[in-house]
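U., I forgot to send this yesterday:
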Amino acid sequence: MKFHKHSYGAVHWYINELGCRVVAKTGIATDRFHIGKLILQSFKDAPDHVMQIDGSTGEYDTFQTALERSVLCATSFRNFGLNTDDVIIIMAPNHNDLVIPFYAGIYLGIYVACVDMTLGIMELQETFHTLKPKIIFCQSEKTDDVEGALRIIKLDAKIVTFNAGAKHYNFTEFLRNYEDNTPVEDFTPANFDAREKTCILLSTSGTTGVPKSAALTHKNLIIGLSYFWTLATKFPTPVEGCLMLSPIQWLSATVHLILSPILRYTRIQSSLQATPEHVAFLINKYKPSYAIVSPTMMTTLLKPEASYKCELSCFKILILGGSPVQQTLIENFKKINTKAEVYVAYGFTEIASVALNPVSAVPGSCGKPHTHLQYRLIDPVTEAEILEANKTGELWVNGPVNFKGYYNNPEATAKTYSADGWIKTGDLFYRDENWNFFFVDRLKLLLKYRSHHISPTEVEGVIIKHPGVLDVAVTGVQDDEAGDLPVACVVAQDNYSITAQEIKDLVKNTLADSKQLRGGVIFLKELPLTSTSKVNRVMLKKIVKDMKRE
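Result:
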């Protein structure tokens, strides 16, 4: 497998040079972090470059059209009456209009809240109550839920639909009603201290409870997101085409929405649902060289029996992340594409970045420490710091990319930050003697059988090695005397006969007695997923409780 010997600082040099040019024009030192001004300058630097393509329609935007449309939207925001520190919500598929109010809000110091478009009325009610938006951008088919949530909490917010609808302005009508034909060259973004100004309110991708909104500043984002590109040496345009599958509320979408104009590469996205068949179509037609993909999606694309044929040889860089990545998945991909560089990325919203450096990580590891972050492993029971190698603890991090906190949620913020300002990740890791960090599991997902802790990820890592297993997730069923009884939810390979006893025997011959599948095995056609392609653990627990287990 090919590795870089080390990561590179070229991306930092490139963004720093861009920032210096912006500061030279404005005379405001903190504009080196002002994402709105950086994007505006980038649009003007290369007007003919293609910024985005909607793969479902073939429609595209150049930097020039994106500049014109986003400036028109920004002036419409001002005429509507939006001010710095107001909140807008965007909740929609990855069509080409999605990013226009996104950029316009960033120009003006408006907080852009990225919300899951699949949330129901009750979840939207809590989200709107916290965010208190002035405008909500969504699809027309979602307006009944949005109206219902607003009515319950008695909040007056403007609803604008991206597509045509009978009850509300659509996006085109909104712009037409509030435009004033300000020339692009006369438009001036808002001035503010970009070190402290909140830019994005990004939902955390939890599977339990209503998502919280992490407040990320311009400085958080421009520093943190750049670490996704320390594996590249050529700027601008480190890659020609990047496949973006993530919904707007996920960090791996934010990195491309912000950095694709700044670093000058083309986003390939789609307004249609990212089914395996459609993703295969996008890959085959547009041949992207870079993608951040969930392990679940890549597992599905690699199915040899699939009716669609996905030509994965186009990728030069593939990043897997969002949930635990089994080494067998990487090996299966490398059988098809031997030249691609494959990385396992561990990152989280609260630092707007990858938390560990995946470049040259040893197999099974998420990477080594970055130089801009500090790291601790903390015993979750005693809260004592773990100093020795090969001992598991909760990962805490600290650095210049720490988020401001959860918007209008001081209680959640206090739980995430330690008393001395470290972010508690909620993830269990251990490190080896060479400071390679290895993911163990989510702290909240650990099962407890009698006095023993069981990592679902560890058990899944054993089961996935069975040649008949396509995918697997382990959860628990409650037992009054013993606690959690592990249950394996298995998706079998097509045309492969596999029994529950085979799965049980595999675990029995590999792991300790406390980690056996005492809750049984169930076979599913597919695992339940969240909107961000992670295993929906809440739904999984309900499934194993209601279904017959073998």
